[in-house]
Specification:
Length: about 170
């Protein structure tokens, strides 16, 4: 329970920080949180950015983090399924990824530090074929209930990445 409260407070602080000043990188955001007394890692900041649905937008000529709609954020709200899939599409198209079948799993290989963001975006789209997922630093394992579900997930991910096969 305490961990959830700390997370809520941290995410509220993130919202306040990005409204007050331009934040261009996860590193800048992590430093701003540390200045406020939060102990955070880059992975924690990355997960928070994904959960809050933050995106980059141009403000005063700088690419900075903003709320999903460009206005203030209310933590705890879930976005539309289309917005979640759009976030997943952006991540998969902007990052180098390989999508591979393995048993009843789908394995997504990407650059170090990116698997958690992809997993968070995947969790938000709530595809019924996905039983669960586990993310490491550069690898995401997606569990599927059966072979048909796996094929559906593979096709969806490949469509989002713009590839036919990996």
């Amino acid at each position: 329970m305490a961990a959830e409260l700390i997370k809520q407070l941290r995410q509220q602080q993130i919202c306040q920080i990005i409204e007050r000043r331009p934040i261009r990188t996860q590193h800048e955001l992590a430093n701003a949180l540390r200045e406020q007394g939060f102990r955070v890692t880059q992975a924690t900041v990355s997960r928070d950015i994904g959960e809050l649905g933050l995106r980059k937008a141009l403000r005063d000529g700088l690419s900075v983090y903003v709320s999903p709609d460009g206005s203030s954020i209310r933590t705890g709200e879930t976005g539309e399924e289309a917005a979640a899939e759009d976030r997943l599409r952006r991540l998969l198209s902007e990052l180098p990824v390989r999508v591979l079948p393995a048993g009843l799993l789908v394995v997504v290989r990407t650059v170090p530090g990116s698997a958690h963001a992809i997993a968070a975006a995947l969790d938000r789209v709530r595809w019924p074929e996905v039983v669960g997922s586990i993310a490491g630093d550069d690898t995401l394992f997606i569990a599927c209930a059966d072979g048909g579900s796996q094929q559906s997930v593979l096709e969806r991910l490949r469509r989002l990445t713009g590839t036919r096969s990996s």
